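Troubleshooting log. The previous structure file for this entry was overwritten by mistake, so regenerating from the original sequence record. Sequence copied from the archived sheet and checked twice against the printout by T.R.
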Amino acid sequence: MSPILHTLPHLTPTGIVDILLVGFLVYQALLVVRGTRAGHILVGILVMVSLYALANWAGLIALQSVLSVIVPYLGIAIIILFQSEIRRTLARIGRKRWLGSGFRVPESVSEILLAIAELQEKKQGALIVLERDIGLRTFIESGVLIDGRLSRDLLVSIFHPETSLHDGAVIVQKDKIAAAACFLPLSTNPALSLNLGTRHRAAVGITEETDCLTIVVSEETGRISVAAFGELTQGLTTPEADERINRHFGVHRGAPVQADEFAADIPLPQESPAVPPSVPPAAVPESHPAERVERP
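Regenerated output below.
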């Protein structure tokens, strides 16, 4: 038997579980940095560590001396360079409800839907953030505090182009508008379309760091978009936006009741009186607008 096999530890069920957990953590770490600029930084760090191991194995004294000064500080460099990714990962872990769901859908969703329908018709840009589990206090403090009851008229007034609050995000907490003109982090995801503007990138950026849901109305096209968990869906109708809001907050609505199930409760229209048979058909004038002739 090879002497290398004698040095390997005996594989036990505990060791198998340990290997699987380490593999899972490595896989999750790769998912966090995949498709971002942090992935290239991670590759550079791995190259430096590999060179340091190669220098030790090959006895390259000069290269080992240079890398021995740099490698010990890689831990601090990782924390600084990957701070946004680490914060995002911890937020994702913290927002999981291990003992049940404690969030609820905002109480005035109908007012939001009416507002975005009016803004879509007028082609006025809007960015609305709906808070869920993770608090948005940091972003609320970056804007103008309102703390007003959520209503369609208030939302439409905020996003009017001539007001000073329209260029920013509105953050909604339950049934109140917490703040307006708030600054949100922009997404750096290279998978997003280059045609997306600042408003859409901000809508995606805030959902990458928190568990909120954002609604965007495009100023150029009037299209409605919804972002959640770093993913943006464009070209939605108002009912589709309503469905996504309820699904995001864990609300499942039953199928609407058909009107014909309770036909007895629906008042029937009264029939118009029939034309008496004694009146000839020619005596009933036709009221087509195109055939009317005004008499002097």
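The chain is about 45% helix and 15% strand. Archived copy saved in two places this time.
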